[in-house]
Specification:
The protein is of the alpha+beta class and 317 residues long. Helices cover 33% and strands 24% of the residues. It contains 8 helices and 12 strands. It has a 6-stranded mixed β-sheet, with no helix packed on it. It has a 6-stranded mixed β-sheet with strand order 5-6-7-8-10-9, with no helix packed on it. It is elongated.
Length: 317
């Protein structure tokens, strides 16, 4: 009897310890040391740590340790607090939004895209007023430019980022995102409801042995956006930064990420992280979507913009 009691007491200790550790990681993943990029990787994976909770509970049940199964409620509560709202429908408490005046779509074209014509045609089929692209170059550049130039009268381009618009663009300048070639631009679009400043950006990639380059790019861009004096601003692109990343929370104060839930964009086939974002300031969002287009390894993100004052366009991060 004593041996059985000792064994069960050991099981309770193991399961309770595992539950406590998982809870601490969920709640404090941003405070874990970023050694060799593992901290940022943990931030990106944080929503999926919830998959370990039913495993913990099932193993406890199989081991006939009900106290261990109960202990799984602690990480479950932490996960629900942090990420449960991502999948839960939230009833609107705001007035009916204004009508849509402009649609913007952002897509990383994928440098190794084997079907750029299909991608460009799919972008045109979105009926967007503004299309922002990243990784425009190599074999995908000529067919993409040809198709999009036929559909849109105005183009702004620097390096491997570009923008097509139904409305006139002007004063296009490059934006530094911390690399040695152009992966960012800023331009003005003369929309029917007034001037709109649009940024198209592609931040450096994150690697386990190098997160500093991406972090430096985020810092540069955040400073640029914070100093931006235009009232109506949209920032679209591949940020190579998940919404749970420790460096995203304080990025560009005053801007709103149009997606505050899951809305994962990468990899396109089975998206596990939201690396692509559209941020806004001073404009109203009337609709958002994430869609898979043929060819790229990222999904496209889109936002419908309305006119009028927006009292919710402050940071939601």
């Amino acid at each position: 009897m004593n041996q059985v009691a000792t064994r069960r007491g050991g099981q309770v200790t193991v399961f309770a310890g595992a539950a406590a550790l998982l809870t601490l990681v969920l709640l404090g993943h941003r405070r874990m040391p970023d050694i060799g990029g593992l901290g940022v990787a943990l931030d990106t994976a944080a929503p999926w740590l919830g998959a370990l909770i039913p495993v913990l509970a099932v193993v406890a049940v199989l081991c006939r340790c009900p106290a261990g199964a109960v202990a799984a409620l602690a990480p479950l509560s932490a996960w629900a607090y942090l990420f449960g709202s991502w999948w839960a429908p939230v009833p609107s408490t705001h007035p009916v939004p204004a009508s849509t005046d402009l649609r913007i779509v952002s897509q990383n074209l994928f440098a190794a895209n084997t079907s750029p014509l299909a991608t460009a045609r799919a972008l045109v089929a979105t009926h967007a007023d503004v299309i922002a692209v990243q990784e425009l170059g190599g074999a995908n550049r000529e067919p993409s430019v040809r198709i999009l130039d036929d559909a849109y009268p105005y183009r702004a381009e620097f390096g491997t980022v570009a923008l097509w618009s139904r409305y006139p663009v002007s004063d296009t300048t490059p934006i530094d995102v911390g690399v040695d070639w152009y992966r960012g631009l800023r331009t003005h679009i003369a929309t029917p409801t007034g001037d709109l400043v649009v940024y198209v950006v592609h931040l450096p990639s994150v690697r386990l042995d190098d997160t500093a380059t991406r972090n430096h790019g985020l810092s540069l861009l955040s400073g640029e956006l914070t100093a931006e004096r235009a009232e109506r601003v949209v920032v679209a692109g591949d940020f190579n930064t998940a919404g749970t990343d420790r460096h995203w929370t304080g990025f560009a104060p005053g801007y709103r990420d149009i997606h505050s839930g899951a809305a994962f964009t990468w990899p396109a086939a089975v998206p596990l992280a939201r690396l692509d974002h559209i941020l806004v300031r001073g404009v109203q969002i009337t609709g958002t979507s994430v869609s898979r287009l043929p060819g790229p390894d990222h999904r496209a993100v889109s936002a419908d913009l309305g006119s009028g004052h927006c009292d919710r366009c402050t940071s939601n991060r």
